[in-house]
Amino acid sequence: MFERGTDGPKVIVVGVDDSDSSWRAAAYAAGLARRQGSQLALVYVQPVSGMLALTGFGGELGETTESVADEIVRQIHEAADRFGETTSVNWQFHTLVGDPFTGLATTADDLRADAVVVGASEQAGHRVMGSLAVRLVKAARWPVTVVP
């Protein structure tokens, strides 16, 4: 029987989007994964507008979101290479298209995550509509850590 929260986190999901706060969240989650011997799932959710490019309506926008994903993977590999053999973080990179909340929640559920880590929102509009972190906390399915 699967049981969450026993013997430390086995899977940690972290949202990355190339913002400074998401990189801080990724670094925090990587340290936690290393110390706990957890699997680290880095998740980049391409905006829905990226999907328009796939249908021919988005043009350069789809290429831009794809290049963001490529750049994130490149930076993750560089960071992993910098730490070399001294770290034993088992990590995966997931790219999805859609709403960040839905993408992170679906990935966390699919992987049976024990924890979700996100960076604090840097967008002023989230004070009105609610940030990704607030939405994840309200979902109440996993412990959520918000890294400033």
From TrEMBL:
Record-linked InterPro entries: Rossmann-like_a/b/a_fold, Universal_stress_UspA, UspA
Boundaries of every UspA domain copy: 10-148
Pfam family, one: Usp
Family: Belongs to the universal stress protein A family.
Protein name: Universal stress protein
Organism: Kitasatospora cystarginea
